[in-house]
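Hey team,

Filing this mostly as a record. A colleague (T.K.) asked me to run one chain through the structure pipeline before their review meeting, and I want the input and output archived in the tracker in case anyone asks later how it was produced. No errors, nothing strange. Just documentation.

Input sequence:
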Amino acid sequence: MGSLTLGLEEYVTMPEHSHSCHEHAGRSSKGFLNAKKIISELDIKEGSTFLDAGCGVGQFSIAASGVVGARGNVYALDIDHHAISSLKDEIAKKDIKNIDAIISDLTEHIPIGDRSIDVCFMANVMHGFAANKEVDRVFSEVTRVLKPTGTLAVVDFKKRFSLGPPKAIRLSPEDVEKIISPLGYKKIRTTSVGLFHYLMIFKSRV
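Output structure:
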């Protein structure tokens, strides 16, 4: 999953005190998530514009590219140079034409035009932004690029399992709703998307 968070392999052995400054990079945990299944839960169709914010090695970007088709576009953004390089190699290998893989710090700027995104997708990154008190900075950019009719989708770790980030920084769906709702979003639904993760769908209140 997105390399803006540590992979599950690292979380398992990470000491509990190490959450004091959450690192926005790490190995992928793609083996724990079914990208095609999760993408099928989202409000995307042929011609949609999809933002994978914190894309990691791009499993969700690649799955979305097949849905949006030639008339759509996928923006895959991550701060990790190695993750973006890996995704670009995969894009070239599979001859995918509708993914733009971009190195970007979401806490500073999202290099996409205003109100151009139909779906903004964030997998395994929300807890890190919250832990580092970066939510307001990230969401000022997310709100800028998302269409008024757009969808915000958040995937993160369930609290009740031992695998995942340190318990002190994990977010329940209720925690996520309390963080995001004041920023102008309304929760539509919450769905389990595997043993360790949940998916939340939001719409703008505008």
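Quick notes for T.K.: The chain has one domain: 22-204. The chain has a mean pLDDT of 87.
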